[in-house]
Batch of 2 targets.
Target 1
Amino acid sequence: MAVQIRGGAAPPSVAVWNDPRARAIFFQAMALVLVIAFGWYIFHNTYTNLEKRGIASGFAYLNSTAGFGIIMHLIPYSEESSYGRAMLVGLLNTLVVAAIGVVFATVLGFIIGIARLSRNWLIARIAYVYIEVIRNIPLLLQIFFWYQLLGKSLPGPRQSFNILDIAFLNNRGLYVPAPVFEEGFWEIPVGFVIACVASYFIHRWARKRQELTGQQFPIFLTTLGLIVAIPFIAAIITGMPLHWEIPALRGFNFQGGMVLIPEFVSLLFALIIYTAAFIGEIVRSGIMAISHGQTEASYALGLRPGPTLRLVIIPQAMRVIIPPLTSQYLNLTKNSSLATAIAYPDLVAVFSGTVLNQTGQAVECMAITMGVYLTISLLTSMFMNWFNAKVALKER
Amino acid sequence: MKKLTVLAAGAALAIFASGTAMAQQTLAQVKQRGQVICGVSQSLPGFANPDAQGNWAGFDVDMCKSVAAAIFGDTKRVKYVPTTARERFTALQSGEVDFLARNTTWTMSRDTQLGFDFVGINFYDGQGFMVRKDLNVKNAKQLAGAAVCTQTGTTTELNVADFFRSNKMDYKVVAFEKNDEVLAAYDSGRCDVFTTDRSGLAADRTKLKDPNAHIILPDVISKEPLGPLVRHGDNNWGDIIRWAFFAMVNAEELGITAANVDQMLNSPNPEIKRLLGKEGDFGKMLGLENNWAYNVIKMVGNYAESYERNVGTKTPIGLERGVNALWTAGGLQYAPPVR
């Protein structure tokens, strides 16, 4: 008896439990159910046990009054603010150190990476030693090192370094004048925006012209002039609606002005210097991944080493550099949580430190903190993936 | 697949087991383990401080020892777990330690929201300030604009905020996780003021580079009733800690010391007889031997002995008894009778 096969369908004589497709679906479904059941079980068990021991749970505490002070806050915050607001303060402190850190670590990392490949023996060696020393010392130690260095080497407030009578440096931080905006100030940032938009169009026009005629236009100087001049003219017209509040020594400390606290500075230094060492290696490997033929070809076309690097090598190297660069950005952001060791009020120190302790709601605080870090990381990598897709080789 | 299922079931069981096991039978667990796990400060001279050999000593450590003496008749059967201010509550909630003897302030929210029971007050304290002598500050009202070093997650951090806010004074708080970090930052000049409980100030001053260059201001800005605490729900366990402490206070009141406790066994005084287990079944009521209090007094001493040995005027900490004197001497220490 011949088996009838119609259009590739499974033979009807096979039982369901012997059908490989049905089995695959069954086991996948079972695995999914198990994972969900396990997750639900952990959640339920935690919740029941918290309740049984009379430990408060839920998120209502976010609205209660915090009652503690935070040394650095970018948004208005006082002891009367809520725990939720304290979390926001911590989050912004994390973001500001991460954002500034990412920018400077990238700049420094590119310099180091390119210096590492320099034909100048001394420069290449310095970059090499920098990378090997920095990336092999634990970050936490480096943070402590900078913090101790700042704390021990700077004088007290009454013996501050006086910089032109407007800025003061002591072991409480760097005190600089704070801008106080007056009426009509809005015209200056508006002028700045107009200058930026104009620069963009000039840039486009110059490019088109170069493509058509081959003539170059001094873009950099022109746009720089615009961006400085327009806000400046706006400021003169409006009669300088801005004055500076200069810090002054009153009582124990300087009052007024803005202050960069040593905790912030030492954390930022450590993060930049540490991450730049890794970025340097990434940049070096990215550049070395580009065939030397590209350099020779661009020399043959008459380009000098500078433009060769800038216009030929780096754009191609970026394709290799960006994916590992993304993980360095993520690392820097996550490493900023080591701030808690030196009293910089970041998200971890404020929220899963002080708030957790004052409320005792460990599970909720930890869950929120982890959720926030996860969100920051996912957003960063989303952006970097988009950027990567933009610079990737477009195959048509 | 089968392996995976077994693994998942095992993991689930482990979580379940650790979740429910600690509800009522801490004493049984402790007896089975042969050790009390006691959460203490990391290093606070006079209260809980390990020596070069790693032997813990101090006023809070004596609390741990007295519980071990009451249960096992052996003060060595304690495992000390040093905790930071930030870790301590989670350590107790999760069952990592059996109880905390860690200069912790009894507050309403900790007693209710955190699921704890404070069993007594072994040290009446209040928060104070320490400053450098050369600042010429005479009292806390002159501290406007000062940078204040303190520890995160403490009542101290909240009290200092309350104090400056209610006096309409500006301040900068620099909050560290570990007490040693706070002290190092203060010593290096990061802050003008170091604030914590006054007992802690006295203890920490001994650790500074030049203790004599610093003064403790006379102001007391808060009530800090410090005492041991247990998880809410296991009342028998809480009773044991409470009565181990009361035994020491009662012993001082009755004049029983580590040195004379053996003679006191023959005392005709019925109160002494009940405390030392010669009369009645008071140990059994706690689930312990009847000589529980005898062991505590013999091995750790009474309240006064523990106080003078660790933090009293003859020690570097140099604290007067003050409000911690017995009620009969005008203080606040008062223990219910053994009856």
Target 2
Amino acid sequence: MTEDLRDLDALASLTDQVRRRAYAVVADGTGPVGRDEVAEALGIGRTLAAFHLDKLVAAGLLEVSYARRSGKTGPGAGRPAKLYQVGAAEHAVSVPPRAYLGAAELLAEAIEQAGVEEALYKVAQRHGRRLRKDATVALTEQGYSPAAAGPDRIELRNCPFHRLAEQFPPLICGMNLAMITGLLGDSDGDWTARMDPAPGRCCVTLSKNQSD
Amino acid sequence: MTSFHLAQMNTARLRAPLEDPSMIEFAEGVAVMNALADRSPGFVWRLADETGDGTIAAPADPSRIFTLSVWETPEHLRAYAYQSQHLEYLRRRRDWFLPNGHQAALVLWWLPAGQLPTLRQGISRLGRLQAAGPAPDAFTFREMFPAPELAHRD
């Protein structure tokens, strides 16, 4: 796995500071992002922004789609804009070789076979409690990329355990729910976590507690 | 249009009879989840008893239940099972089901579009998966095999 030079190449393309910031702008976007938005966010020219974005595409870190942004269709709507979003592939390089995902898969399978999901949920909730602080800050630190979806709802745009969650959805999504519930605090908190799955984001969403 | 559909069979052993108070939420959820499956994209068919209930108990062991269904593609089944309200029921399955241990609880296989699987067929596929591990005629989501047609074309 340390021999996987494609992963190393992909990550090495982020050593350029401007390019790394361009990646962050795309990763933080709520949807596909155009070069103009990246240029504006970084205070650089559109051509330079496009250069870095296309390098990130070539490295496999970003993916391209095309869409008309004005909402117009048909003749006169103009050319579709080239848009960028984070690629589905994951890249990791470990020196010396480590394979924690492989260990996690074995542990997850053992938990399912033994039927001790509840033990994992308890551990996860306790772990979440230890991380407790401002919800958005804590969730950001844990890699969930929280984003407001209206005044009363927070969606988590990244699942830190994505590949494991794909293989063991009930177990790992349940672990996420327990950890986030612990992190948010008890009934006096502002937010409640619940299972609310959808493709492309964490299966847990937060809804604001009614204060009356 | 694919000429093969995906068949699915699940089995579980209930912790208590469906009438038991501890099973109320599961028993109520069955109808909700069946209705959700019926209107989910890519849903083709499911085994149902005369009341429309898709959770079929084995005659010899009433605590042993089965679900059997057919979907256009694995993605459709995945979306229903793991990206809908159904996931919350799966998360809570230990409240209602005994652990499976080493026994396989889910089996998938391909069947020609238009054909319907039988419970007997599903139990036999589950046995094959259990005995020999995932193979083209009995597999799992974690170890998928392509539909026969696709395998020939490649």
